[in-house]
């Protein structure tokens, strides 16, 4: 019997630096189902198998929220009747709408959620969910037996291992959305202190503000770099797609993540997949072999820089292989197989 899955997500566009990865999720999920239908707020550039149909709710055409909701309500009943299950990506508000419909039809509802905070929408959606998938225990702190910890879905075939040896310069890379929880100000302050005694060092920050709320913090980060006297050594490279990010990972000597979210950060895993030594204060990576753990103080981060910069080639190679091995536990193929198996088991 054909297995048909309805997917509800934010955007399907490989050129989007924040959500472009989801196209790869769809490609991999397509290997496990006979038909995929995808409802998204907006769509852009993508290439997917013929049995995957993407339907936009119109956000790319500047449709208002009321129009988007109207479009959704027109589509959801026929799509629910056609599908055997629904998989909602990171937007539990849609579960609140579709949950009663699918429950009435006796069809399972699944949601992927990865964030430190637990919004009211997720709590309200939980009774309608068959399972709530997440990347780690820290990534979904909702107390529910429905939470299923899987992995994070890193394309380790794309983020290939790259061997690095010690160089005369020390190039630090950070990749994240520029927001308060990512601690970019701490990173710049720590780099300024390190750079004072290590002039042949640089910091590249890949990422940008996702919303207008984040923009003041981004502007403040640039001012901080200038006031600290390291504006020439700090590069704000802007947000990048995965294809454009890869060269930055290969050129770097160390990756830094000072996130306070407490959840497994996808950017860290992508760096680890390439064998890049990682310095992080993120509690989700505490005691992981190959990771240099620091706390959220300037002195601790500086010590992390020094430890990474001064490690021998043999230690660097050992850490690189440990990092790669850990990242492979979160591979895209593994996660999509886990999700598909869970969904198909619940289908009638």
Description of the molecule:
Helices cover 39% and strands 19% of the residues. It has 348 residues and is of the alpha/beta class. It has 2 domains: 4-153 and 331-346, Glycogen Phosphorylase B (Rossmann fold), CATH 3.40.50; 170-328, Rossmann fold (3-Layer(aba) Sandwich), CATH 3.40.50. It has a 7-stranded parallel beta sheet with strand order 3-2-1-4-5-6-7, with helices on both faces. A 6-stranded parallel beta sheet has the order 10-9-8-11-12-13, sandwiched between helices. It is elongated. The mean pLDDT is 95.
- Report the CATH topology name of the largest domain: Rossmann fold
Total strands: 13
Say which CATH homologous superfamily of the largest domain is assigned: Glycogen Phosphorylase B
CATH architecture of the largest domain: 3-Layer(aba) Sandwich
Helix residue percentage: 25-40%
Alpha carbon gap, first and last residue: 10 Å
Output the radius of gyration. 21 Å
Strand order of the largest sheet: 3-2-1-4-5-6-7
Notable traits:
348 residues; alpha/beta; Rossmann fold; 2 domains
Helices and strands, with pairings:
Layout: E1 4-12, H1 22-30, E2 35-43, E3 52-56, H2 65-82, E4 85-89, H3 92-105, E5 109-112, H4 120-125, E6 131-134, E7 147-149, E8 170-175, H5 184-197, E9 201-206, H6 215-227, E10 234-238, H7 242-251, E11 254-257, H8 266-273, E12 278-280, E13 291-293, H9 298-309, H10 313-328, H11 332-346
Helix pairs in contact: 1-11, 2-3, 5-6, 5-9, 8-10
């Amino acid at each position: 019997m054909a297995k048909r899955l309805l997917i509800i997500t934010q955007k399907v566009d490989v050129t989007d630096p924040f959500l472009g990865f989801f196209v790869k999720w769809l490609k991999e999920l397509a290997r496990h189902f006979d038909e995929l239908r995808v409802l998204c707020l907006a769509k852009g550039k993508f290439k997917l198998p013929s049995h995957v149909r993407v339907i936009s709710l119109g956000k790319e055409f500047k449709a208002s929220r009321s129009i988007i909701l109207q479009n959704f309500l027109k589509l959801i009943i026929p799509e629910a009747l056609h599908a055997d299950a629904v998989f909602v990506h990171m937007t539990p508000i849609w579960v609140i709408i579709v949950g009663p419909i699918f429950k009435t039809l006796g069809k399972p509802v699944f949601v992927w959620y990865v964030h430190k905070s637990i919004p009211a929408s997720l709590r309200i959606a939980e009774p309608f969910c068959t399972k709530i998938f997440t990347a780690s225990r820290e990534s979904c702190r909702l107390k529910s037996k429905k939470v299923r910890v899987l992995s994070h879905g890193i394309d380790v075939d794309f983020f290939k291992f790259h061997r690095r040896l010690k160089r005369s310069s020390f190039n630090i890379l950070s990749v994240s959305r520029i927001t308060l929880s990512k601690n970019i100000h701490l990173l710049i302050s720590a780099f300024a202190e390190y750079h004072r005694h290590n002039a042949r060092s640089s910091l590249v920050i890949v990422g940008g503000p996702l919303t207008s709320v984040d923009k003041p913090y981004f502007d403040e980060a640039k001012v901080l770099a200038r006031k600290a006297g390291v504006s020439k050594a700090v590069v704000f490279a802007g947000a990048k797609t995965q294809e454009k990010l890869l060269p930055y990972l290969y050129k770097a000597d160390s990756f830094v993540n000072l996130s306070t979210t407490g959840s497994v950060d996808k950017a860290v895993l992508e760096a680890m997949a390439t064998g890049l030594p990682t310095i992080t204060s993120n509690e989700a990576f505490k005691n992981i072999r190959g990771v240099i753990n620091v706390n959220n103080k300037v002195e601790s981060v500086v010590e992390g820089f020094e430890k990474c910069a001064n490690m021998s080639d043999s230690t660097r190679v050992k850490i690189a292989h440990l990092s790669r091995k850990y990242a492979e536990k979160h591979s895209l193929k593994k996660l999509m197989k886990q999700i598909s198996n869970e969904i198909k088991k619940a289908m009638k």
